[in-house]
Structures are given as C-alpha cells and as structure tokens.
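Entry for adenosine-5'-diphosphate complex. Fields follow.
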Amino acid sequence: MEDKRIIELHGIGEKRAELFRKRGINTLSELLCFFPRTHEDRTEIKSIADCTDNEEVCVLGEVYTPVSLVRVRKNMTIAQMTVRDESAAMQIVWYNNKYVKGMYHTGERYVIYGKVVRDKFGKRQMVNPVIEKEGKAKFTGKIVPIYPLSGNLTQKVVQTVMEAAIKEAGRLDEYMPVSVRNKYGIAEINYAINNIHFPKDAHSYGVARRRFVFEELLILQLALLSRKDKTEEYTGTVFEDTRCVDEFVGSLPFSLTGAQKRTLDEILNDCSGGRAMNRLVQGDVGSGKTAVAAAAIYAAVRNSHQAAMMAPTEILAKQHKETLDKFFDGTGIKTVLLTGSMRQADKKEAYSMIKDGMYDVVIGTHALVQEGLVFDDLALVVTDEQHRFGVEQRAKLLSKGNDPHMLIMSATPIPRTLALILYGDLDISIIDELPPGRKEVKTYAVGENMRERIYAFLEKSVSEGMQAYIVCPLVEDTEKSDLENAVDLCERLQERFTNFSVGLMHGKMKATEKDAVMNDFSDGKINILVSTTVIEVGVNVPNANIMIIENAERFGLSQLHQLRGRVGRGNEQAYCIMFAHGNNEITKKRMETMCISNDGFYISEQDLKLRGPGDFFGTRQHGLPQMRIANLFSDRDILKEAQEAAKDIIQNGCLKEKEFLPLQKRIDRLLTDNIVMN
Ligand code: ADP
Ligand code: MG
C-alpha cells in the first residue's frame, strides 16, 4: 500500500494535521496504528430513571427546555438544558461553553452519553456529555474507542478521523506470514485493524488486540535475536589466571554476599572462556556492584591487561576512581581519571602514559571515547548505569581494544523473566541480595495535612547534622501548574529555614553547575538540596538520610525506588517521605508498595503490574522502544509465544524468504529508530 500523508485525508486540514504530527502521526499507516487506550460500551440505552449515580450510560432524551446561559461570575458561564424520556428528566450542563446555545431544539431527540451525577438538589445531571442526533449517531449505540490523548485533540475528532481513515485505506496487505498466523492463531490484518478500533463486541476486540500484541513482541524479539547473532562472533582476550582474584577478595574489609560471589564467578568464567564477555549486572543501589566490577578489573590487570570504566557524569567518575583506589590500595595498580574538564596538558600526558601501558585502569566520562585516546592493551570495559550511554559510544570504547570484554552495570532492577527477554543479546547476572546489616529506608506516604509535622522533623534532623533531598516534578513554575517546582520551593524553604543552607539543582543547569552543587552537598556545605529527578543517577552522600518527594503521584514506582536509593547509604536510619495527592487507585497502590518494600526486584514487578498497556516502565532507561500496545506483564503468555515463534524463525533461516520480507522491513525500521538497540 502506498502510504498517504494524513493531510490528504478527508476531514484533516493543516491545523489538525499539526495536532496529529505532535503525536508522531504523519501518515495513514501511522494513524491506523494509533491504538485506543480503552473502549466505552455505549451499546445499551438506559432509561433515565434506571441510571444509577456515577454510572456512565447512554440515554435517549428529548429536549424539553432548550439551552439557557447563566453567568455565575466574571469568567464562568453555565449552559443548561433539560431532556427527558418516558421515565424521568435530566439536566445537561456545560461550563464555559456558549456555543451550545441554539444547537438543540425542543422536541428533538438525541442519544446522550456521559456520567450521571446528582446536583445539590438531588436532580440527575450530565456534564459535557457526548450528544448525537437520534438516527445519526456515530459514536453512541456502539462500542467506542477512547484514544490516549492530551492537548488539543479531542476524542470525537480522532474517532471521526479514524473511521474515515479505515474506509479510505481500503484493503490492507497482510504482512504477517500465513504460516505464522496459522500456527499461532493470529487474526488477519484487515479484521484486526477494524476491530481494534471499532470492535463489534468484546471478543472481536480481544482477537484483534492479540494480533497486534503478538506482532509487536515478535518484531521486538526478532530484532533482539538478530542483534545477538552479531555480537557472538568476538573471541575476547583470555584471562589465563583467574585464581588471582582470591587475593583481592581476601583483602576486602568484608566478605562478598552469595549473590556477589555468583556474579563474580560468572564474570571470570566469561573472561577465561575464549569468547568476549557481554554481560549485564543488575542490582539495586548498594548491592555491591562496584566491588564486583573492581574484582573483574583486578583480574584484567593481574593478567597484564588494561581496563576502562565509564560513568555518565564527571562527579560519578571521580567517585568511582576514589572507590577503586581504596580497593586497590597496596596492590600497585595504577589508575587515572580522564574527564572533559581536564587541562589539555594533563590530558596529553595521561594519553601518552595510557598508550605506553603505564596506567592499568582508566576511569572517566565519555571523554574515554575520544579519538586521541589509545590504549596499550584494553581487555575489559566496564560501563556504569548503562542507559546513559548510547550503543555507539560503547562501541567506540570497545573499538579501542582487541575485542575487550564488556561489563554493564545497571541499578534499575527488572524481573528476571523480563530481563531474559529484553536483553536477549546480553548474559545477565543479578545481585539480588544486599550486604548484611543494611537498614531499610523507612518510607511514608503522607498528605498535605502532614506538611508542618514533616517540616518540624526536617528541621530537627538537619539541626542534628543530617542532610536531606527534596525532589520536585518541575523545574520552575512555567506552566502555572499545580505541581511543585524546584525553583519556588527552594526559595520558600530558604526563607523558612534561615539557619540552613538550601541548594538547588535541576536539569536546565549546565553540567558544571550541577557538579558544583553536588560537590557542595557532598561536602556538607548544603544542608537541604531541592532538585528535580536529575539526582536519580547520583553520587553517594552517606550523610544524606532524608528524602522528601513532592507530588509523588507523578512518578512511576521504579523511579520512586530509584530516588529513594539516594538515601540510606550510611549507618544512620534513613527516611523517605512522599507527598501524594489525589485519590487515584493506582497511586494508592504505588505508595503502599513503596511503604512495604525496599526490594527493587519486587517493586519493578509491581510497577509492571500497575502500569497500563503500552506504558512499560523503564523502556527509555533501558534504551528499548516504547511498547505501543503490549503490556509485558499481563501479556506474558503472548510474549512466550512470540519468543517461541522468533526462535523458530531465526533457527530456520526464514527471514530470508520472500514471505518474510515485510516483517524484515519492520525489524529494520525498529532497529534504525532505536539506535540504542543497534
Ligand atoms: P552499588 O554499586 O551496587 O550501588 P556499591 O558497590 O557502591 O553498590 O556498594 C555499596 C557499599 O557497600 C560500598 O560502601 C561497598 O564498599 C559496600 N559493600 C559492597 N559489598 C559489600 C559486602 N559484601 N559486605 C559489606 N559491604 C559491602
Ligand atoms: Mg553504584
């Protein structure tokens, strides 16, 4: 099918096209794949008297008194009309909508869809309902799609445009090979498109949805698997002696946890096996990933090679250098820090010493991928918090060695089953055990009524020498939003706590400014740090033991957990206090989960459960594409089938067959659109 631009469609002019463009929809096929978030069943028409309060229903009403406008105050008008059927009457109400006056005439009959509520006199009313003339109803008396919208696009516009677009598109070509469709019972494309948007009934919707979920997961799996093929060719440097690591482990001031030992064994196995390691280590903050990485680096150096460690920010790189220096004290291992802000002369000297193999370990930011840097014998690359790096950067660093081993450390735990699926191209080690003696962060979800008590607690704790983070969803008050913003809150807190130094940090600041603030906080010059989520991937400040999160309802579970991980790194009891607003059920469950658990793997599983379709946590952090329709938790069964199908297809070399060409194109597109996956 030739792909039309949506502006060529009926009912779409420049203005609407622009609104769709903002949602990433430019072409007819993109529009057709803009799937509804849910459907409303408007098939049944109820009599007004039978409507229960707060029920969303369709009624068939005759206009009894036409629209009248009442101006209640300067900026507020209320428009009202009365409709009735044989059973009862009902008010229809619009706020600030003058245009409805004169639209509906006495005696005309309309199908009206909305939520029935009671006004203060106990009379039934509907506010801003969907109204369509009897006999001409397009979106009442049917199962109607509801799209994930925000901004100026309305449901009605999208519904109308979608209906026209499906007609306009005509018969679509099937691109799912018939062998696959038959084997897995996958609906045909035309049936699926029609019924995903305008299903006849719940069953046809289910069948249609299954097709697109399967398709999305199959393409993802195929993309991941075809990538794995590429990476398995490298041979890697063989570390002859891995027993040497015992000395290092023995020199540590603690003994490794079981999970650390297991992970280290897996790493050493890889490095001595004659194939380049490609391993992801997942573990909560504080689970001791760095110590494991240090052991791997030790092995590289003792086998006469060099190692590199890349961190996302300068200050984190510095911290890693300090940590490694402590670990390697007395071993004679030489480390060096390379950052963007180094003086040219220092850099040059470091470069030349690295090239000559005088330094064993190079720690740095993306300064490590720069052209001029050449290693003598780079055999191991460790990257911290991988989501901050593109694959390209990693690849550049890898190219500086002779198939070096790659160790990726991630502090974003995801459930094991999911990790296996999403990181089909990496081997995975999971550190799911914290070192003994760690205190859980005491976590509370509170309402606005607790603010004074919380501030009193904050004041007391800071007077006793503790430090606190306060996280806000916004940087500044640009959108006249109800949400708390860091700039204003910082000012208010500084006025209130005149004895303390209140600092500010957010994403609009330059990297050097952020580093400076973080340094001051780390040195204790700042007592309370008000910030946005930029602190998420952060520096270890053991003295910071209070985390207050504003508008916690705005954050996903995994993100809340990540933020909480900033505190509780010292010996004192740490606290996390979340101000949450609204009565949303999902918010309540999220808060509850945070309060009862400190376990990142458990929390990520709950996160997956609580998220809606297409709204997969951590996809961006993990550099994976946003799921359009699949929910990786509730669609686990389809996921298994898609995995099986993908393995089958790859193993039998099907992708080269003509029938699979359209699928291959979609895989290629997914890979090019997501550079991180390449
Ligand atoms: P991560 O990198 O996973 O966030 P770190 O490696 O920074 O965690 O470890 C956090 C802290 O715990 C460090 O101070 C580290 O020295 C310490 N640590 C690591 N492993 C152990 C262990 N097995 N027993 C006790 N303390 C440990
Ligand atoms: Mg760490």
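NOTE: Residues 442-597 form a domain with the Rossmann fold fold (CATH 3.40.50.300).
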